[in-house]
Specification:
The structure is a single chain. By secondary structure, this protein is mainly alpha-helical. It folds into 2 domains: about 35 residues, no CATH class; about 30 residues. About 55% of the residues lie in helices and about 0% in strands. It contains 3 helices and no strands. It starts with 16 loop residues before the first helix and ends in a 13-residue tail after the last helix. About 0% of the residues are buried.
């Protein structure tokens, strides 16, 4: 977002602050400022192909290492522990 002013409200002579704030809120809603800020706040960046590929390669290497450890007899596959919560 640029540093430009999106909504500007000036107080009238006999206007109280509550109505000024109400007028400001309505204009802010009308220009979709709040909605756009929420969209930016909760934006989740997509992972690139390289990141996905590297993650998959790490998983493959980990599984291969596990299989090798089972073959060597260092790990008993029947006693696979699960995480407790």
């Amino acid at each position: 977002m640029t540093g430009a002013t999106q909504v500007e409200v000036r107080r009238g002579k006999n206007e109280n602050t509550v109505s000024l704030i109400r007028r400001f809120s309505r204009r802010a809603k009308g220009t979709n400022i709040v909605r756009l800020m929420r969209v930016r706040r909760y934006y989740i960046r997509l992972k690139s192909k390289n990141v996905d590929r590297n993650r998959a390669l790490i998983g493959l290497a980990r599984r291969e290492k596990y299989r090798e450890m089972v073959k060597l007899g260092k790990i008993d596959p029947t006693k696979r522990r699960t995480r407790r919560r």
